[in-house]
Design a protein that fits this description.
By secondary structure, the protein is an alpha+beta fold. It is built from 13 helices and twelve strands.
Length: about 475
């Protein structure tokens, strides 16, 4: 059974159900025949026997009573025999029967008490069963006679002869309707499953484009929706993996190309001037540092995403941490002639990892400095959740289609990947993971000519002692 597919199992269940239905119908009809029909015959014989016996009032049978009995034998399917002695009973039967087979000792004892005896048996001459009853007739001095009433039982097919065409018609309609319903259920149930099986095989081959889109709300629809969601997710993951591979190859190839090229120049041009050699070595050093930073960021991001890194939390003067980080960008801001606007609540205290939170500040400020043209605004204020950090810069804004992708590995709005603004494309990815570990939120948006990053850091917010 375990080796059968679901459709075959359902077919077996259906055929089993039909078989059980037929068996139930057979036993039900048999019950109607044996219990209801025979019980009705028995009650009728009992009534007629008692009624006939009541016509005799401790005397001889009158001519009128005999005429009534003869008339009743003509118009009724019942046969009535009246005898003085039980021994004479078999001689009046229209078929052969042994007296001992008809009346035994226990029957005689019952009759002597004045109670009737019901009998049932098969008669070869009639080729059917008969059902009858022997009723004792009491006189003044005891039993003076017996009345025997019997009737041949109709065969079961005769009992239901009139209703058989209706039963066949109803049965045929039932099976036709059942077949149509089953066919529809079969298609609605197994066609999506077969399609799902085919699409699953395609997914295993790397084709994620197929969608079921059944539009159903039942379990099959939920399964189809889950499959579509899974396919879409796998397709996105596969695309991200391809993008990651492409990006990592590009990011590694560029510094390695510089290092290899300038190393070859240093080797081939032995007579180069000291300034040229210094330039070559400086470039090699820069690209080596760039390569080291890329690898470091990748390892760090991997640790953050897999929760390998454990936060070392402590009470932090979060405002001072932000001011110290801004100080690191003073020269770059001056060189680019960028105005810095700040609104910082210097009394804020937050429970967090100071090293990681400074990395959040550094990466977001570094990103803003790269793309700002005239100004950067930084806000650090108390919020309902704890602390809100907000940084905005003017310049080229992010396209709506790129906003949702900010924070993905190697994703940069600068598609040209220039070496002046390129970076590794991992900075904001690291920021998002650090914020996640602090159970905070990270959002980025555009407002007219500004790009705005808002970070909410929850936790119990405290005031410094100076407040």
């Amino acid at each position: 059974m375990n080796n059968l597919n679901l459709s075959k199992k359902m077919l077996i269940v259906f055929l089993g159900s039909i078989t059980c239905t037929i068996l139930f119908s057979f036993f039900f009809i048999h019950y109607l025949y044996t219990d209801l029909y025979k019980e009705q015959i028995k009650e009728s014989i009992m009534y007629q026997g008692n009624r006939t016996a009541s016509h005799y009032h401790y005397g001889e049978l009158s001519d009128s009573i005999i005429e009534k009995i003869q008339w009743y034998n003509i118009v009724s399917e019942y046969e009535i025999i009246v005898v003085d002695r039980l021994d004479d009973l078999t001689s009046y039967f229209p078929y052969q029967i042994d007296y001992q087979s008809l009346i035994n000792e226990s029957d005689e004892k019952i009759l002597e008490t004045g109670k009737p005896v019901m009998k049932e048996g098969y008669v070869d001459e009639l080729k059917r069963e008969i059902f009858g009853g022997i009723f004792p007739i009491k006189g003044e001095n005891g039993l003076i006679g017996f009345i025997y009433i019997y009737v041949p039982l109709a065969a079961i097919q005769d009992v239901f002869h009139d209703s058989l065409p209706i039963m066949l018609l109803v049965g045929s309609i039932f099976f036709i309707v059942l077949f149509l319903i089953l066919q529809r259920v079969w298609r609605s149930l197994f066609e999506p499953l077969q399609t799902l099986q085919t699409y699953s095989a395609e997914v295993s081959k790397g084709d994620y484009s197929n969608r079921l889109n059944t539009g159903r709300k039942d379990e099959i629809g939920k399964l189809a929706t889950a499959f579509d969601t899974m396919s879409r997710s796998l397709e996105e993951q596969d695309q991200r993996k391809k993008d990651f591979t492409s990006n990592i190859v590009h990011e590694l190839r560029t510094p390695l190309t510089y290092i290899s090229g300038y190393a070859q120049l240093s080797r081939d041009k032995i007579d180069s001037s000291p300034d040229d050699v210094k330039h070559y070595l400086s470039t090699i050093e820069k690209e080596t540092e760039r390569l080291k930073k890329l690898i470091h960021d990748l390892v760090e991001l991997n640790h953050l995403e897999q929760d390998i890194y454990t936060l070392e939390t402590e009470p932090i003067a979060i405002a001072q941490l932000l001011l110290d980080t801004l100080e690191l960008f003073a020269i770059r801001l001056q060189d680019k002639n960028i105005q810095l606007h700040t609104s910082i609540d210097e009394e804020l205290i937050l429970e967090g990892d100071p090293k990681r939170l400074q990395q959040v500040f550094y990466n977001t400020i570094d990103n803003a400095v790269k793309y700002a043209e005239q100004f950067i605004s930084v806000h650090l204020t108390a919020s309902k959740q704890g602390v809100q950090y907000r940084i905005a810069n003017d310049g080229v804004t992010i396209g709506d289609e790129d906003v949702e992708r900010i924070g993905e590995r190697f994703f940069r709005t600068d598609k040209a990947r220039t070496r002046t603004t390129g970076g590794t494309g991992l900075g904001l990815s690291i920021v998002k993971e650090i914020v996640r570990l602090h159970v905070g939120t990270f959002t980025i948006s555009n407002e007219t000519t500004e790009t705005i990053v808002v970070i909410e850091l929850p936790g119990q917010m405290q005031r410094s002692e100076s407040s």
